[in-house]
Design goal:
mainly beta, 1 helix
């Protein structure tokens, strides 16, 4: 699964422009002494045209800025496997 678009999400948790709704199904915190504390969100987003798109958002804890990774519409989100691959 390869992200087709990455958005710098500067107003987290408000959905970025072009995203109608965001449904988070899984949340995981990552603690590593070499990294800032990270929170990974996995779910689906509905874009302005009504398409449901699998997404992953990675947020540095304590900030309101995240990277939002959008995947192909046809990809199936396997939340636990996807989260494990980022951890």
């Amino acid at each position: 699964m390869v992200a087709v678009m990455v958005i710098d999400w500067t107003d987290f948790p408000n959905p970025p422009r072009g995203i109608r709704s965001l449904d988070i199904t899984e949340v995981r915190r990552v603690y590593d002494y070499e990294l800032p504390p990270l929170v990974i969100y996995v779910g689906v987003a509905e874009d302005g045209m009504g398409r449901v798109i699998p997404v992953v958002a990675i947020l540095e804890e304590g900030t309101n800025m995240a990277k939002l990774y959008l995947f192909e519409e046809k990809d199936t989100v396997r939340e636990k496997e996807l989260i494990a691959s980022f951890a």
